Amino acid sequence: MRWTGLAARLVLAGVFLAAGGAKVGDLAASVRAVHAYDLLPYTASKVVGATLPFVEIAVGLLLLVGFATRLAAAVSAALMLVFVGGIASVWARGLRIDCGCFGGGGELAADRSPSYGWEIARDVALLAMAGYLLFRPAGRFALDNAFIPEEDDDGDDEEEADQESAVGSAG
Amino acid sequence: MVTTRKKPIKSQRSARPAESGGKAAGAKRPARSVMARQLARERARRRAWIAAGIAAVLLVVAGFAGWYAYQSQRPDKAAASAPPPAGADAAGVRVGTGPVTVDVYLDFMCPHCRDFEDKAADTLAKLVSDGAATLVYHPLAFLDSASSTKYSSRSAAASGCAADAGTFVEYAAALYAQQPAEGSAGLSETQLVNLASVAGITDPAFEQCVRTDKHLAWVDGVTEQAVKKGVRGTPTIMVNGQAVDADPQAITDAVAKAS
User: Fold this and answer.
1) Given an 8 Å threshold on Cβ–Cβ distance, is B232 in contact with A161?
2) Mean pLDDT, to the nearest integer, of A155-169?
3) ipTM, 2 decimals?
4) B-contacting residues in A 78-137 (Cβ below 8 Å)
5) Which domain, by its residues, includes B9?
6) Is the minimum CB–CB distance between A14 and chain B shorter than 8 Å?
7) Is residue A165 a part of any domain in this protein?
8) pLDDT band for position A171 (50/70/90)?
9) What's the structural domain count of chain B?
10) Distance CA B125, CA B109 (A)
11) What is the C-alpha to C-alpha distance for residues A86 and A88, in angstroms, rounded to an integer?
12) Is residue A150 one of the residues assigned to a domain?
């Protein structure tokens, strides 16, 4: 189970770093991608579009090194909920846009069709990983382990043994 | 560090039955009192909160860095007060004097905009010459990331220089004819200047205008206005504010209906 935590951290970190990195070069495009959802007034779209890529990179770095993992997982889960909600809302309203998840964004050309279902499924999978980390933030090679002795571990190792065997039999 | 922590615990556990045979778990480490463990737990919790606080500050700083980077990626604020090109206002370049307004939102880097130009240029010219419509061209910087040199912005700014010379439509056609491939560097400043001859521009001010990116801030403003209006892609066509298909027939029908 400690490897599962590491895997969840690395996958989420990779996705966030890629998503943020793809957007930082053209933040005006990121603002347009946000505004294309037609959910926020323009000033709010500007704030979200300009700050989100950097926040994604920061969360990605936190997860990569495993620092304040629980907070990073909470922020990740919150972001995924917002993304899923945004895409679902666009889908329900019949807009035809690129989610702008990894750069790009805006209306799709006539010869392209939306892929909202796949995008939501992907974000729900990432949400599940963030949820796992929220409850089991300590994984292997996390910076957190260096200075925060794990709560579960500092006395009743019975419980941990039980969890380990439970996960082992499930897997 | 993880493994070294874990091993002693495991070995302790395996040794337990021999030592204390089935007693409660709390009895296995007599040296470490309940209170000491409580204190250790509190200390760990405090450290976790401090780490979370540091991380939260980092996230906020990242947000501010993003806002700062966004502002610094946009053209100079000082230049934003420069007057728009001749025949243009802050929203775009106006051509013709007809009663119906046809807005054309375009990006010189966008292949579908070139297709639209190929299909619809004659129709649009006729609407102007018949006095049926006023065209408002909005050259946008949507696809700056599709070239390594922000070609969308640069070409749109150059088209503003052509508007100064009174030949926006001709210069736009020349730009489309030389449309660079996605991912390329786009046309150089010199190439943009040289297109003047194709468009019939003789004004010597044109070169200076292109080379100094005089209308870059205007393009930024035109783009922002378009986004605020809900334009999400290019080409987007509106007839008296209503979106219509980027198709010559759809446009003439909508103009006929509106006039």
Assistant:
1) no
2) 41
3) 0.85
4) 97, 103, 106-110
5) 2-65
6) no
7) no
8) very low
9) 2
10) 22
11) 5
12) no
